[in-house]
Amino acid sequence: MQILSPSVDMSCYSGLSLFVDKGRAWLYQSLSDHLLESYIRCYVDNVKLVKSFYMQDALVLDYQVL
Question: Where are the alpha helices (DSSP H) in the chain?
């Protein structure tokens, strides 16, 4: 099962070294390409799979926070 499609090309951001900078670049590119909604939908549709990657008390698993 593929959660995120490889349609966001991050090769032009190869000069970024910090994870925060890479995350910002990915978010910017996703917004520019109108793909963020589909990524969030994949996250919501695959909650069981997402839970396997995070600790039980992680913020991304708290639906009141989201």
Answer: 19-32, 36-45, 47-51
Q: What is the pLDDT of residues 10-32, one digit of tens each?
A: 677 777 788 888 888 888 888 98
Residue 20 DSSP one-character state: H
Residue 58, token pair as written in the block: 């992680």
User: What six digits make up the tokens of 10?
Assistant: 């991050």
pTM summary value: 0.57
On whether the CB atoms of residues 50 and 40 are closer than 8 A, the answer is: no
End-to-end CA distance of the chain: 24
Tokens of 30: 């996703």
Helices 19-32/36-45 angle, 10° precision:
110
Is residue 66 within 8 A of residue 40, CB to CB? The reply is no
